[in-house]
Design brief:
The protein is 48% helix and 13% strand. By secondary structure, it is an alpha/beta fold. The protein has 3 domains: 103 residues, no CATH class; 157 residues, Rossmann fold (3-Layer(aba) Sandwich); 199 residues, Glycogen Phosphorylase B (Rossmann fold). The strands form 2 sheets. It has a 7-stranded parallel beta sheet with strand order 8-9-7-6-10-11-12, sandwiched between helices. β8, α15 and β9 form a beta-alpha-beta unit. α12 packs across α16 and α13 packs parallel to α19. The protein is globular and about 65 Å long.
Amino acid sequence: MNNSPEKPSSPFGPFVEMSDRIIDDFMRHSVFRSDLVERLCRMAADSDAGPAREAVKAIFPGLIERLNDSFDPGSCSLYDRIFARIIDFYRNLPGGSSLDEALNRFGLFDENDLLRRKNGLFKHLTIPSDARRKVGKVMLLSRVTIGADVAVTSVILNKLRTILPDVDFVILGSSKLRELYGGDPQLRIREIAYDRGGTVLARLQSWLEVCRAVDEESAGLLPDQFFLIDPDSRLSQLGLLPMIIDERNYFFFESRSFSRPGIKRIGELASRWTGELTSRDEPAFPFLALPDEHRSFGLEIAGKLRQSGAKRLVMISFGAGGNHRKRVSDGFEESLVNELLKDSTVILDKGATVDEREQIDRICRSLRASAGKVVEVDENNAGQILADENLSADVLTWDGGVGRFAALIAASDEYIGYDSAGQHLAAALGTPSITVFVNSNSPVFAERWSPYGRGLIDVVHVDASVADQKSDEILSHVLKIHEDKNTKKTR
């Protein structure tokens, strides 16, 4: 039986065949092609920027992300072998001396040491009740992406807060998290930069910053006075890089291989893992703690639209993180907005990439051409918009930060979007949602990343290979769910 992760639908440069060969030889023949991994590393470290960029793409989207998206235990094992080899290669480059010195301080002198340490992490099954009484601080590593932090990290955090109500919590991650969790006085964000589009060495060297942050946060504390939670973070390269010498209170959730019968969504698995860790069975859900300024913004915008006659507010995001394979089509998106306008006022997020903004601009031009009223709001004119007594629009667009984006979702009656951060924000906020999940990975990938929360959640699963051809069918399906939600609310 071939358990190889599915190949990406489009190549990532001329080196993608090496990525395919590494995976296929391991999955089919149990042969680890260390030589090919090293060749990719050499190419990625080449001074010629063009080939180096293509090699980095072959390593990350073509190899690493493909393995991790499969949620297969065999792929986890191969990932560990590959990334231990990558770390060992880069630590021995002239520019990797600081990385090498830090690893030596942890007693990790080669890739075998890295693998031995990683394989020993799973000895932690539960936190003894007496250990909880000594803890005054809990640090959690960010998953790096906003959606994953909401879907996974916040679930673990939410569970631990009920068990450790008087403990200080710190998330080591992006400053953007303050926009989502700045309203929680028990939680602090310690900013860590991780360049997802950087070189391999730059990504590895961000670990040094994390180690410094952990050292500073734990200064003056004994090893049993704090917990360090790693939810399969890219900051630790999925557990391969250590953060502390004494790891008795370091707990690692390997989300790619952890499974329990009947549980499919990664958020629910995170809840179960934390429950087993703490011997507490009650489920935990994702949450947000929006700062008052952001929550007030969403409520004021929604209130003004309703005062001007809006009966139902639907928040839409066609953002897909720049991954066009997660979209249905331009036509589907424009038709969806037009159909929703028959019974709703639409709040339309402008996205995070140039392509996404251009698509929203095209939709807005089409609406204006047919006498639709579009009001565009961004960080610069938001104050002026709120100062106006009347705010009337068929479509209101938002172009700005994630905190106000989340606040608009919270104030809306419904959220519709692709597989992206928005679906997890809506689930955490309890806003009824429809996710159009266009999937070019494995079926397990779609199961794992489907939103999890207390609200009314619907997911329309779409095979990426037929999304464009079936756009009318997908549109009808989404509109039927929307109509059912609307009917239930008005009863």
